[in-house]
Amino acid sequence: MIRYFIFSLIFLPFFSISQNSLNLSLSGSYTYDAGVECNDIWGYVDSFGNEYALVGLTNGFSVVNLSSPSNPTEEFFIPGAQSIWRDIKVWNNYAYVTCDQGSDGLLIVDLDDMTGNTYVFISTDQNGQNMFTRAHNLYIDEFGKAYIFGGNVGTVGGALILDVTNVDINNNVKPTILGEFDEYYLHDGMARGDTLWGAAINQGNFYAIDVSNPSSPEIFNNGLAFNNTPDNFTHNCWISDDGKTLFTTDEVSGAYLGAYDVSDLNNIYEIDRIQSSPGSGVIPHNTHVDGNFIITSYYRDGITVHDVTFPNNMIEVAYYDMYSGSGDGFDGSWGAYPYLPSGLILSSEINSGPNGEGMLLVLEPSFQQACFLQGNVYDMTGSPIFGANIEILSTNISSTTNLNGFYNTATLNSGNYDVVFSANGYISDTVSANLSNGLITQLDDTLEMFMLGCDNPLASNFNPLATTDFAYVGPQNNNFASGGYFYGNQHLLIDVFEPCIIKSAKFYAENINTITFELRDQFGLVIDDTTHTLSVGEQTLNLNFDVPVGSNLQLGVSSNNSGLYRNNTGANYPYSLSNFIEITESSAGVPGYYYFYYDIKVNSKCLDVPNESWNCTPNGCFDPGDGSGQYFTLSECQLYCQNTGLFEENQTLIFPNPTSNYLNFKNNYFGDYEIKNVLGLVVQRGTKEKENISLNLYTLPSGVYYFSIKNKTYRFIKK
């Protein structure tokens, strides 16, 4: 999630409040008495168009007038049992309030009477049948059916279904019980049409429940219309306006907002998940759908807004955080209400006041739909590349491809962007894209594979096909699937086909600790090792392992491992790098597990390269350090530079390049020349005995060749 931090001071009577926000601004607020905290919230509009906030408090129920959003005022307060949980919904002119502690039962408030004097607490229905004395949550659908969740009714506290269409508390007409779902405890839920979507928090599932016959509700698809949520603690769920996508929250540290395709109840599956402030441990609470957006009360991260126009590609477009703390904890925003005709968004703040009091926030939105980008990444054969990275430059937004090579991402602002495509073992590519709000831009790319090898033509193992002397192997990072910190000494198994150097790798540490990293042979004997003191989080460490040819070599740690990250799902072996190295599996022997070493940098080894070589440049002689210089000694280079005063490239002509028949070579040096193909085979050789020579290449097949000439003091190589 992108965060832009805006620090400002809002001067209110007796105190100041700091906040951070994006595309949501504070219109006004109402602070409750000391010791009073807020819980859930709903909205109400009277027959004159006046808007109200209906706020649950630890000590009762509050109605706040929003006619002046900058100065909300409380109309009335109804005391009730002390409880940290209340929930509120509206049907016609009545507010219905549940309380999860005490014995209030169901509070029904007549909102036509803004004196607050017309209300009733009930625990029996119109027929005198016992309903409940406490309940966690409720929802009222478009037919006037109220679903009471987590009440002390039935055997497990599923959903009690009430008819509230004819309620008239002035004439003592109460709701009527229609039926009950009692298969699982439901913490929360919502209904549309004949379907109840229930959040079974203890099972970590949501269920699609057929309520066409309220007296006998049952789960669709013979009890199989359900799905697990990412963190197995399904707190709430909300259906999209078109009924095709369900959004969920898990009320645990570092949990996700989940999105699911529910268009076919016989085939429900997850299509996306997203976190607010990844890595902070912040806890999501309740999410609501409002058109193309979901608005979520996110505890210590305040209110967040995500664009879900394309629910397989959710992106945060706005947030407002009043609470001064951060991370894991049940503070800050409890509930959000986004359905007022004015467009204002309400947040009930548990304890964001200057002295820990509850607050009502009235927020003005200014967000718009995001700009969406998607496509496929292929290699030169047309095969999809898994784990390719796609970065929108200047935004810090990135994505990775799935097993089919598909990616999707988005950014907030329209415009022209450079998009960088990269993958381990491939040459990066930058492509321009014009992104527009509310639209998908399709952008595919094809990446050319690195050819890893010795690219120094002076080495005995020179590979003319090589495009680089180093590349990366293994996953780029640890966010491709789930995992956690591990304290054992499991390892990766590697096959090595050419001598190479494992230069570095990326690691994730849970603690500050000192760990020895080891390269071992197939029998577990240490070939090379290095010891580092790690900081908490992500870091890249130099290893410089000299790796011999072999199979089932072990890349791991010594027994002093004290908390390195490993993935327990998602690994896709083998991870191959050209003809040099291949990660075949992990020692765990369990599919999907991947241990410790990410983004492994591998260097080829160039053999028998002279220690000293020099090039002549306009700035004098320099040693490139890899033996690729044209002169064996500094004195030879200095003599040439002194005598000519010119950079050697200006004295050497090879033309035309490319050519289809004749190649001309001109300089004032003589020696033996060779032309080699990309396999290193000599296809033509001779001796240059004059300043200018012309070579007939007509008989050679088209392709890439290397021309070289050398004598005792001079050497020249040209592709």
For the record, give the distance between the C-alpha atoms at the N and C termini, rounded to a whole number.
46 Å
Overall average pLDDT = 90
Question: Which structural category fits the helices and strands?
Answer: mainly beta
| Lateral strand order in the biggest sheet | 46-45-48-43-51-50
As residue ranges, the low-confidence spans are: 1-18, 644-650
Number of strands: 62
Give the tally of structural domains.
Answer: 4
Radius of gyration: 34 Å
- Return the CATH architecture of the largest domain: 7 Propeller
Biggest beta sheet attributes: 6 strands, antiparallel
Total count of helical runs of at least 4 residues: 2
- C-alpha geometry: elongated
Supply the CATH class of the largest domain. Answer: Mainly Beta
Query: Helical content, roughly?
Result: under 10%
Strand residue percentage: over 45%
CATH topology of the largest domain: Methylamine Dehydrogenase, Chain H
CATH homology superfamily of the largest domain: YVTN repeat-like/Quinoprotein amine dehydrogenase
How does this model look, in words?
With 719 residues, this protein is mainly β. The chain folds into four domains: 24-365, Methylamine Dehydrogenase, Chain H (7 Propeller), CATH 2.130.10.10; 371-447, Immunoglobulin-like; 475-604, Jelly Rolls; 652-719, Sandwich (Immunoglobulin-like), CATH 2.60.40. Strand 24 (257-261) and strand 25 form a beta hairpin.
